[in-house]
Amino acid sequence: MSTSSRRPEFGDGAVAFVMILPAAILFGVFYLWPFINGFWLSLHNWDGFSEPIWAGFSNYLRLANDHIFLGALRNNLIFVVAVVILKNVLGLALALLLNRALFGQSFFRAAAFIPVTMSFVAVGLLWSWIYNPVFGLLNAGLDLVGLGGLKRSWLGEADIALYSIIVVDVWKWLGFHAVIYLAGLQTIPAELHESATMDGAGSLQRFWHITVPLMMPIVFINTILGLSGAFVRNFDIVYVLTKGGPNHATEVVLTYMMNKAFQDGAMSYAAAMGYVLFLIVGLASIGLLALMRRHRLEV
Question: In Å, what is the CA distance from 249 to each residue of 70, 154, 181, 193, 244?
């Protein structure tokens, strides 16, 4: 009995191993090995063609004195804070609106998601036209409502260019985060709101005491998605709109990495930037996950 009872366990284990093996091989070849090899190259000086020369941690020490990199990292942090706050606040507000019984509800839900499906090139061209200081829609609109004094070169002035790009990124991804919030809102039992209404709770009280607590897991998910996107998926929108200009005012770590790697041939130096960025994103994500777990335990 003991021998026969062990055979299915061995068989199940073997089958599971065979099924996992292809995915494990692909993960090792395309993720784990490039990660390890990239870190090894960041400890060298390498231009992509000649033989790598051992440099130790000199590339990482060099980053501490690179004012352009530090400025790009600061822009990344501004980008992250602004994008995460705006995507969560506006995404939840949009989800609350789309969750109401409105005429043409399906149309508005689909329309809110359209920017998510657009390519970064299309978004960049569209907003480059909107922001154009001569014939752009934004400046024309300001003229139309009598606010011509607010007209600016939205992508050409160093003090506002980064914030102009943040607006574009929020506009593109707002529908994505709103859909996640909308799915969370639809899981809240209607009986809770009905009971609170019968007890005399107003709409604002129901929002703070029912909706917000039950939506906290969704808030954490959207925060992590917004955080990772603002750190590691902001290259396209920045490069298409400004290429990091004017005078590095919109430079982020990814655009600076690309410039150093493919224009200056400093592959190892660019790799060191990538691992610094990975460390920052990893620590921030771990912190958010720990905070989420703590919140669940308290609840």
Answer: 12, 12, 33, 47, 7
Residue 140: partners with Cβ closer than 8 Å, 6 or more residues away: none
As a whole number of angstroms, the distance between CA 233 and CA 169 comes to 10
User: Residues near 235 by Cβ (< 8 Å), separated by ≥ 6?
Assistant: 252, 254, 255, 258
DSSP string, 194-210: HHHHHTT--HHHHIIII
Q: What is the pLDDT of residues 236-294, one digit of tens each?
A: 999 999 999 899 999 999 999 999 999 888 999 999 999 999 999 889 888 888 887 77
Phi-psi region of 79 (alpha: psi -120 to 50; beta: other; left: phi over 0): alpha
Q: How far apart are CA 88 and CA 218, in angstroms?
A: 10
Query: pLDDT, tens digit, for every residue of 66-113?
Result: 999 999 999 999 999 999 999 999 999 999 998 887 787 888 888 999
Q: Nearest to residue 237, comparing CAs of 142, 144, 168, 147?
A: 168
d(CA 155, CA 133): 9
Cβ neighbourhood burial of 214 (10 Å; 0-12, 13-18, 19+): middle
Tally of CB atoms within 10 A around 255 = 22
